[in-house]
Amino acid sequence: MVTILVPGALRTDTAGASRLTVGTAGTLRAVLDEVDLHWPRLARRIRDEQGELRRYINVYVDGEDCRQSGGLDTPVTDEAEVQVIPSVAGG
């Protein structure tokens, strides 16, 4: 099972859950496809209409920034931890 850590700002799309689990491993794309099946509102906050990661969302697989390790093709093993972090703007 892959664990997805959801920050407070996105928990309204998961009925308040801070941790989600999915049975799919393989790639980040496959994991996010399963997220889309169970939590479509959350999936739309993570990926755009073309299925790409939104610019203001950072995703880490076992602590590694997926943009540096293959993007949506980043390998995700069973028991992996995927962390979703929205960028924070401020002044």
From TrEMBL:
Q: Record's Gene3D superfamilies? A: 3.10.20.30
- Kindly give the PANTHER family that the UniProt entry links to this protein: SULFUR CARRIER PROTEIN CYSO, SULFUR CARRIER PROTEIN SLR0821-RELATED
> What is the protein's name according to its record?
MoaD/ThiS family protein
Q: Which organism is it from?
A: Plantactinospora alkalitolerans
